[in-house]
Each structure stands twice: as C-alpha cells, then as structure tokens.
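hey can u check if this looks right to u? its 200 residues, i copy pasted from the old doc so theres a chance i mangled smth
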Amino acid sequence: MRILIWIGALFPLVYTALRFSVEFHPQWLHDVLVFLEGHIHLILTRTPTDPLKFLSDLAGNSALWMLAITLLVTPLRSYIGINFLKYRRLLGLFAFFYAAVHALLFIGVDQQFDFIGVNHEVITKPFIAFGMGAFFILLLMALTSSKKLYAKFRSWHKLVYIAVVLIAVHYLMSHKTVTLTHVAVVGSLFLLLALRLLKR
C-alpha cells in the first residue's frame, strides 16, 4: 500500500516532467501520449504556455487533494472499518510537500524572495492571506508529526479543521469565476470534515 501511495503522490511530478520535456520526447512516446490524450482529461503533448501558473496550480491542487485523502482516513475507519491510519502521516506529509512547493513558487519565483512584496500581497489580497495561514498550520503539523512529538502536540493537530476552511476559501477566491466543479471540490472537503467531526 505504501508503494501505491508513493506512486500516486509522485504522479504530479511525473506529469510535470512530461509537460516540460515535450520537445525531447521520442516519436513512440509522443504517439503514446497522443493516444492517452484522447481518453483522459489531461494535456500531455504541449509545453505549458505559462509555466509559473501551471506549476503553482498543479502544486496547489495536489496539496488540496492529498489533504482530502488524508481527511478520508478517519471516516473510512469509523464508518466502513477500513483502517489506513498507519498511512495518514505519509499522506499528510505529501500534502504539506505540495503546499510548500506552492508557497515557494509564490515567494521565491513570483516575488523573488522580496518579503516586503510578499507582505504587501498578503495584506492587499485576502486569498493569499488565507493560503498563507493554511500553509503555516500545515507546517506546524508536519513539524510535529513524528510519534514522539505528535503525542505531545496532538491537540495542535486539531487546527487542521481551520486549515481546511482557509484552503477552501483560498481555492475559491483564487479563481476569477467559480464553477460548479470548484463548488463540488470545496463541498467534498467540508463533507470529509463533517464526517470526521460527527464521529468524534
């Protein structure tokens, strides 16, 4: 199971490598990717026109979905009896990894480590403030996720509920137009959150 989690969690990195290496693909790989494009909802044969936006969106969405899968662990055990609890930390760390990449792309690439500029963006753009708040909560949880530290700081991990709300708002506000798909994504997060809370 751990291997499957690693494969699934690293898929966004593989997808990124495919998109940025299109010009170097051998013909057989290009033909395979063209075939796959006809059956899956992914672009595989074109380099991103806006690399920073592509990477930022992919990292942010990957963090969101890894967090959603992490939240799913408790409901699966409580309601269905499927116990993946021993994998929750790994899933959570992957969620943090992609959140960190998302944040570093903003701070390091978009703002070029201009922390005055970062502070200005946080103050003037609420959706960035919500995202930063969620990131620092995930950072705190990642730093205290070992068995020894988790036992000591377990109550701090309840901040994940606040992080989910912040992420949901950040996600919705980051889109110029909110579609039914965006609402469904946020609804899924809140449903998982509700299932966890109801079973406590």
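Residues 1-47 form one domain.
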